[in-house]
Structure formats: C-alpha cells, structure tokens
C-alpha cells in the first residue's frame, strides 16, 4: 500500500472494492458450507443423515439450493407494496455484509480499522431490523405483519442487553477499536476477556464469563435463531415475515440471516475469546520468526476455528432447545438480562475506578 | 475528490429524502424516507470527522426512535382521504411555523458566516490531536458538564418511570407464570406414592 498508485483516488477505490469483494466472497463461501454443517449437525442430533445426495457427503447441497432459488419465479403478492417488498431482502443482505468491514481477521488484515469499530457494528446491526419490518409490512398479509412486529420488538429488546454486555468489554479494554481489543487479548488463554482479561483484571472473570454467556444467548435472539425464532415460528405464523417471499428475495433473506449468524459468532470470538489469538504464547511455536503472510494465515485459521466452534454451538442449541413462548422471551430479555448486564457494568466500572484510585 | 463526491451525494440524498418525508402520500413511506434522511445525515457527520456522533445518530435515531415511529405508523389505521382534508385548514399555521424556522436558520447561517458567533464562542475544550472523538467527548462530559449530564439522565429516568406507570395495569385474577415455583417442583412435591394391596384396590376417598 506504500506506492503512489494505491493512494491515488482510483487506486484506493480499486483496492477497497477488491477487499470488499474478497471478504464478501469469503464470507459467502463460508456461509454456504456452514449452512450445510448446520443441517448436518441438526440431522446428527436427530439420528438422521441430513443432506447427502449432492456431491460427496452432500458438500454441494448449498450450491444446488442456490441455483434452485435463483431459477424460480419471483412472486409478488397482488396487494403488496412492490418497491418496499423487493427492497427489504436487499437491505437485509447489504447490512449483513456491511458489518464485516470492520472485522479484523488477522493482524493488519482488516478492511477499515475504525476507532469506533464496535459502535459501527452496533449501528449496522440496529439497522438490520428494518429489512424484516419492511418485508413484513409490504407483504400486505397478516402473518408476515405479525412476524415483523414480533421480530422488531425482539431485536430491539435484545440489542439493549447486547449493548450493555459490549460496554463491559469496552470498559475492560478502554477502546472501541476491534484490532486493539484483540491485541490486548494476546498471549495465554487467561488474557481473553471472557476469563477476565489478564493479570491486572483477572477478578473480573466472575463478571465477564457470565457476560460472555449472556452475549451468546442474546446473539441467538438477535439473529432470530431457535430457541428464539419467534418471528418465523412455523407453528403459529407459518413462516413469519417471509411467508410471501419466494425465489431470490427469499434467498437474500436467508443469506442475510446466516451471514448475521456467522457475524455474531465472529463477534463472540473477537470480544470474549481472543479473536485471532490461539490462547497460548505464540513464541512457543516460533511464530514471530514466520514470514508475515504465513503468520497471518495461521491467525486467520485460528479465528476461523473459533467462528466454526461458535457456529457449532448455535447449531446445537437449535437442535436441543424447544422454542420460547413470546412472553418468556420478553421476560428473559428485559427482566433478567437487562438488570444483570446493568449490574455488571456498574461492577466492572467500579472495579476500574477502584484500581485506578489504588483501593484494591 | 472522493470526499467531495461523497459530500454532494449524501447532501443531495439528505435534502431529497427530507423533502419526500413531507410529500410522500403513504405515512409508512414517509418514515422510511425519514430513516434515509437520518442515515445520510450520519454520513455527513462522518465526512466532518465526527464519527462518534454519526454512529450515535444511527444507533439512537435510526435504530430505536425510527423503529418506534414505524411501529406506530404501521399499526395506525390511516384513512388517506381524511388525512388530506385538513390540508388547507392547517396550511396557514404550518406556513408561519416554517417561515419562523427558515428565518432563524438564515440568521444563524449569516451570523456564523460573518464570524459573529465564532469570535465569541469558546474554543473547544480539548484540542489535542492524539485524542479520539470519544475520549475528547468523554473528558468534557464527565468533568465540566457532569451535572448537566446527570440531570439529563434523571430527566430520562423520570420519563421512563412515567411511561411505565402509565402503561402498567394490575388486573386481578390473572394467573402469572412463577418460574421459581415451576423449577422448584420435583417428584416429591408433585406426587405421592401409595402402596395398594393386591386384589383390594383403592376407593376415591383414600386417594384424595
């Protein structure tokens, strides 16, 4: 990036477009296989085989599904608001990809190293609800509308607890820049924020580990995953906000949903479980002597493994836990998670102040 | 060059969408245009280097306030014909309000352009270049303006409590879920094992 061309407007535009394309294609490919993994894990828990026809072990199932979606006819309901109806899935998928712009994959491998990275993510994910509301309203049908209303209330509620949990991490790290949040968690596993964030702040493990769990559960609710998939509860609302959608618009909704799920897995890894840090001192395997690209590839691998692990947890929860009732969902969000994370913010900031004042 | 292209793009988007908020026939479309206006305004903030404010604008106004707007507008049973009827009646009042706002904005702009305000206004408290926006805002907010900040918090708290007391209703005779009771229920509390002599059975009185 140090030669003149890449700093000129044209070169800069080309470089950012390339980076955006690289990340999008990478995420899409990952989503294609994770979707298959999701179905396989779910099938495995129920002692079925899952998709196993297209390609070896059904590996190409997602691509076959995509082709099928794209080749079908787009049906727009007669009373629908056509523009908003078609805009909704596009917004969903664009917002899902937008958030990836600030995710650091390895040291230096980040598209935009914002110093308000976490706030950016928070802003983009708070916009995600619009795709669903618009889709539900524009369908001009009552099941989608009910699904959209539920979903809006659910996502807004759980955003509050996610925000407060993230504030704990910000308080510990003292920055909103994701890269420096990850670099603060390097070295051994107890430096990860889920385990208190290292020598100086280890007693906060008592708060941070429950916070990591709350974040995980809120992430389930935020991405409308089971057991919180009320917006598309098929036993009550057929398929919620996406009842009227078919073919490519439906594909976009589903893609946006899965990209969001993978994104939440990445967020859990970044904020609480060390991001690209493997959890041991990298000098043990001589990593500082490796060439930069090889070291970064290793870090990328570690990060991907963590994402896949959290995705596995998402899939297991989907297989194990029965769906919540709507009032139970709201009760959990507002009466349990919100007060708990609020108390945690008070405790962590109290800890920071006490340490700074020399009381502890 | 990219910055100026981005500025004109977002400025146009802001103005056009703000115009469409007023002129759109469907109230839901109005709210959607309003969201676009907020979003483009956030983009303008970013161009001015106020990325923290931009993100807050998106999180608070687009992510929360506009969602509630959309909620309310969607739930309303709006009669578009009747909505149009009052147009002529309220036009004079609306014109006066708009005129006053316009005059105020022109006056402020003139004052700023002529330097009348800038000369008197205090210089920003934190001008150190190595501070990020968040740190700079935090340092003033929690030191010089801490009482105002706390007062704002109390106002919000009062509003929140007010909203809760207005909507909270205790209906008598409603069964509520008691999670602790449900979780605390075990076999010992829920059932009783009786030994029944073979060939005799039990009567219903014995069971109760």
TrEMBL record, chain A:
Keywords of this entry: Cell membrane, Membrane, NAD, Quinone, Translocase, Transmembrane, Transmembrane helix, Ubiquinone
Location in the cell: Cell membrane; Membrane
GO biological process: aerobic respiration
PROSITE patterns noted in UniProt: COMPLEX1_ND1_2 (PS00668)
Recorded GO MF terms: NADH dehydrogenase activity; oxidoreductase activity, acting on NAD(P)H, quinone or similar compound as acceptor; quinone binding
Main location: membrane
GO CC field: plasma membrane
Keyword Transcription listed: no
PANTHER family reported in the protein's UniProt record: NADH DEHYDROGENASE SUBUNIT 1, NADH-UBIQUINONE OXIDOREDUCTASE CHAIN 1
HAMAP family the record matches: NDH1_NuoH
The protein's name in its UniProt record: NADH-quinone oxidoreductase subunit H
Species assigned in the record: Brevundimonas halotolerans
From TrEMBL, chain B:
TM segment ranges: 6-24, 31-50, 56-78, 90-113, 147-168
Key words of the record: Cell membrane, Membrane, NAD, Quinone, Transmembrane, Transmembrane helix
EC number per UniProt: 7.1.1.-
Membrane topology listed for this record: Multi-pass membrane protein
Subcellular location: Cell membrane
Molecular-function annotations in GO: NADH dehydrogenase (ubiquinone) activity; quinone binding
Swiss-Prot/TrEMBL catalytic activity: a quinone + NADH + 5 H(+)(in) = a quinol + NAD(+) + 4 H(+)(out)
Pfam families in alphabetical order: Oxidored_q3 (PF00499)
Enzyme kind, highest EC tier: translocase
Tagged with keyword Transmembrane: yes
Main location: membrane
Listed GO CC annotations: plasma membrane
Family named by the database record: Belongs to the complex I subunit 6 family.
Biological function: NDH-1 shuttles electrons from NADH, via FMN and iron-sulfur (Fe-S) centers, to quinones in the respiratory chain. Couples the redox reaction to proton translocation (for every two electrons transferred, four hydrogen ions are translocated across the cytoplasmic membrane), and thus conserves the redox energy in a proton gradient.
PANTHER family per the UniProt record, alphabetical: NADH-UBIQUINONE OXIDOREDUCTASE CHAIN 6
Protein name: NADH-quinone oxidoreductase subunit J
Organism annotation: Brevundimonas halotolerans
Taxon lineage: Bacteria, Pseudomonadati, Pseudomonadota, Alphaproteobacteria, Caulobacterales
């Amino acid at each position: 990036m140090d030669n003149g061309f890449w700093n000129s407007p044209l070169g800069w535009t080309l470089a950012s477009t390339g980076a955006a394309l690289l990340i999008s294609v990478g995420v899409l490919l990952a989503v294609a296989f994770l979707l298959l993994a999701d179905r396989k894990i779910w099938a495995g828990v129920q002692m079925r085989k899952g998709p196993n026809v297209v390609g070896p072990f059904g590996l190409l199932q997602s691509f076959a599904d995509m082709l099928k979606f794209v080749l079908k006819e787009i049906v727009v309901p007669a009373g629908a608001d056509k523009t908003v109806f078609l805009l909704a899935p596009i917004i969903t998928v664009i917002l899902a990809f937008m958030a990836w712009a600030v995710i650091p994959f390895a040291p230096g491998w980040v598209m935009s190293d914002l110093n308000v990275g976490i706030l950016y993510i928070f802003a983009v994910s708070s916009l995600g609800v619009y795709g669903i509301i618009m889709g539900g309203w524009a369908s001009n049908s009552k099941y989608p509308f009910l699904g959209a209303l539920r979903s809006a209330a659910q996502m807004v509620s759980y955003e509050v607890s996610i925000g407060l949990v993230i504030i704990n991490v910000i308080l510990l790290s003292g920055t909103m820049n994701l890269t420096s949040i990850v670099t603060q968690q390097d070295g051994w596993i107890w430096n990860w924020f889920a385990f208190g964030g290292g020598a100086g702040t280890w007693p906060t493990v008592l708060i941070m580990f429950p916070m990591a769990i709350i974040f995980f559960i809120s992430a389930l609710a935020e991405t409308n995953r089971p057991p919180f998939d009320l917006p598309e509860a098929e036993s009550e609302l057929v398929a919620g906000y996406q009842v009227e959608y078919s073919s490519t618009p439906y594909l976009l909704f589903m893609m946006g949903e899965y990209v969001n799920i993978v994104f939440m897995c990445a967020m859990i890894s970044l904020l609480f479980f060390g991001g690209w840090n493997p959890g041991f001192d990298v000098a043990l395997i001589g990593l500082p002597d490796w060439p930069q690209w090889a070291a970064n590839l290793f870090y990328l691998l570690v990060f991907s493994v963590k994402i896949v692990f959290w995705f596995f947890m998402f899939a297991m929860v989907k297989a194990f836990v029965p769906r919540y009732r709507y009032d139970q969902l709201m009760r959990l969000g507002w009466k349990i998670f919100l007060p708990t994370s609020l108390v945690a913010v008070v405790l962590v900031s109290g800890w920071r102040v006490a340490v700074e004042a020399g009381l502890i | 060059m990219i910055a100026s292209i981005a500025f004109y793009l977002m400025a146009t988007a802001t103005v056009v969408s703000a115009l469409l908020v007023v002129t759109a026939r469907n109230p839901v479309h109005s709210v959607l245009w309003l969201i676009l206006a907020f979003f483009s305004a956030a983009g303008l903030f970013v161009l001015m280097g106020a990325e923290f404010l931009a993100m807050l604008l998106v999180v608070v106004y687009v992510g929360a306030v506009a969602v509630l707007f959309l909620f309310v507008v969607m739930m309303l049973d709006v009669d578009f014909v009747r909505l149009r009827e009052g147009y002529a009646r309220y036009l004079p009042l609306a014109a006066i309000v708009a005129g006053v706002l316009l005059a105020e904005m022109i006056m402020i702009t003139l004052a700023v352009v002529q330097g009348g305000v800038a000369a008197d206004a205090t210089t920003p408290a934190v001008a150190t270049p190595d501070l990020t926006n968040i740190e700079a805002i935090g340092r003033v907010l929690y030191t010089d303006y801490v009482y105002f900040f706390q007062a704002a918090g109390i106002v919000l708290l009062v509003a929140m409590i007010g909203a809760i007391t207005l909507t909270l209703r205790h209906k008598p005779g409603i069964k509520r879920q008691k999670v602790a009771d449900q979780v605390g229920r075990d076999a010992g509390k829920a059932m009783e094992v009786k030994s029944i002599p073979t060939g005799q059975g039990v009567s219903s009185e014995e069971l109760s």
